[in-house]
Amino acid sequence: MKVSNPTSRFKLKIPSQFSVLDVGSGHNPHPRANVVTDKYIEDNYHRAGDIKVLKKQRFVQADGETLPFTDNEFDYVICCHVVEHVDHPAQFMDELSRVGKGGYLEAPSMIGEFMIPRGAHKWVLLEIDKKIVIVDKERLGMKSTHDFGDLFLDYLPRNSFGFKILQRTQQQIFTVNYEWKERIEYVVEPTDAELKKYFTQVWDKSMYEHIVPKRSLGKEYMAAMGATVDIFKNVFKSKVLSRFR
């Protein structure tokens, strides 16, 4: 079941004694993971660079749909930007739930896929009513004719303070960020009309509010202030602390 919506994979509160698995770690493994896995060792089609394994991490080559681990072997499972690539998402989700007692899933949202399309992505996702809803991207007719990936992934993050705040305060526009325990609640190719409409109809105000809930002025202010502090911390680490390393 759903626990929360962390703003990013680096905002997870994982107890120090937990054993952690990163599924599909690729070129950017989570530093908290003890074990990292990837299906492809030499083929970088599904990632942005060569496989990387950090110090004290154990690498296991594995298909996420048939993980070579026992039930509940890990306290926490991290899986970022992988499910949109797999052949059988239901089997993949079940495997994450099987080997982990809880975890964190992150993937491009349907809105994010429209703005930053990737040919390697087979599925689009939304979180609706605390469930991950997964739909075949090709069936929706989504094509990569106009790709604004460089704008949203590079140009604006480098040059727009306002965009940085948006990324941190309304992350669900770009990604599905879903922390769970015991089992991931999901639906693949929904038949329920209330779920299907998000993928087949023009959204109205109520649908926007369902995916991007309104916040009070006070909560909006606190979110913006928290994002601002986080941005300055990151700038300090990258610009100042890096000089002393």
TrEMBL record:
GO BP annotations, alphabetical order: methylation
Highest taxon listed in the record's lineage: Bacteria
One GO MF term attached to the UniProt entry: S-adenosylmethionine-dependent methyltransferase activity
Keywords assigned by UniProt, alphabetized: Methyltransferase, Transferase
Annotated SUPFAM superfamilies: S-adenosyl-L-methionine-dependent methyltransferases
Coiled-coil stretches: none
InterPro entries (UniProt xref): Methyltransf_11, SAM-dependent_MTases_sf
Domain Methyltransferase type: 53-102
Protein name, UniProt field: Methyltransferase domain-containing protein
Source species: Chryseolinea serpens
